[in-house]
Amino acid sequence: MPRMFYNSKTADLLASALRVSLLWKDFFAEELTCLHIIAHRGASAYAPENTFAAFEKARELGAGFIELDVQLTKDGKLAVIHDDKVDRTTNGTGFVRHFTMKELETLDAGSWFSPSFQGEKIPDLEAVLHKYHNKIGLLIEIKSSKTQPGIEKAIGRLIDRLGPSANTIVQSFDAGAIMTLHNLYPSIPGAVLIRPRFGMLPYGRLRHISSFARYVSLKHTMLSSFLIKSAHSHDMKVFAWTVNGRKTGRRLQSWNIDGIITDYPDYFKKEGKA
């Protein structure tokens, strides 16, 4: 049998891969018994979406994850904001990509929701990651990779810099973006948002997605127990969005849903009792 030699770089890579493997083992063991409550844009029913106020409220209400959206700025930073324009959720106007991050931080991202949130800022994803990494789960959505070339690499670089974490997930409706992220940073878990036709997902499509993503995320009205079982048979977990009714939550839980994305994280409990 030939001898095998390892340099320090190879040893570091193997050690990193082992850490990621152990993290996933623990994380998926938890998922077998624990429903994940995911605060949609933070606790967005109680505070302005995609702000630190909404994220802190989500933690206060016991959410296990915070879902948030990112857009690339003029200077290549990642701003936490849902729309490609700032008009709806700030006192500014124009496309996010036409602002630098510093310019975005001068806008008021809270007053539109309530005067009591005046002065809330658009967060920088880097600041969000530093604040919450390994403290609460983060579900980061890429809004549009086609109009924001390089966004997958920018997100992956930020996450990778902080080290492997099983509870920082990147999702998108653009399966190609998640595949690109997986190819660049295979240790970062990905999720594909799907709009299935007639409540069905072709077996071949699920099998294809499972080769580069660990999760699928669907609108709750499109879900069925059969679809969830099909995803589970491909070793994938299923998230439902956006669930704001307890009755709907109970039905999804009876189908063994893995995570509920909601504006009201206090409506549901971690142990799966709505």
UniProtKB/TrEMBL annotation:
Residues 35-272 form the GP-PDE domain. Pfam families: GDPD. SUPFAM superfamilies: PLC-like phosphodiesterases (SSF51695). One of its GO terms (biological process) is lipid metabolic process. InterPro entries: GP_PDE_dom (IPR030395), PLC-like_Pdiesterase_TIM-brl (IPR017946). One of its GO terms (molecular function) is phosphoric diester hydrolase activity. This is Glycerophosphodiester phosphodiesterase.
